Amino acid sequence: MQERRKAREVALQVLYSLNFVSLDVDKAMELFWGNFMAPKAAREFAARIIEGTWIHRDELDSLIAGCSDNWSLGRMSKVDISILRLAVFEFLYCEEIPPKVTINEAVDLGKMFGSENSGAFINGILDAIHFKIDKDHADPSVHPVTGPAKA
Length: 151
Description:
Strand order of the largest sheet: 1-2
Shape: globular
Number of helices: 7
Structural class: mainly alpha
CATH superfamily: NusB-like
Order of helices and strands: HHHHHHHEE
Radius of gyration: 15 Å
Low-confidence stretches: none
CATH architecture: Orthogonal Bundle
CATH class: Mainly Alpha
Helix content: over 70%
Distance between the termini: 44 Å
Strand content: under 5%
Number of domains: 1
CATH topology: N-utilizing Substance Protein B Homolog, Chain A
Oligomer: single chain
């Protein structure tokens, strides 16, 4: 599983950089891999979560904003929001990964790359999102992002 840890670190770095440059995802990954090496499995998983997170970022941001009391996305650090996006992408689109693993990995990324308080901040928001997703899965008429189905 070290390959997935490395893949998440790579994904975070690429997603973070996309907040500041006007590149498409493929070009950003190409630039990253031009300078850094990683095993094939790590590269494949990193590409999956980078592309998916970036494509679904509006949906992910909506869910994050809805579960982050007193914190608008604009107030969050770019590192923290990048970690939250990739973790929420895993919650929604990587069903093979247990949510506890996703949370643990995101908290570790926050501790490594974020501020002193990033780990606890990320943990709190991801716990709330995980609870909301679990609750919404129990009621099939509720989508985790858009809410209850309209009659």
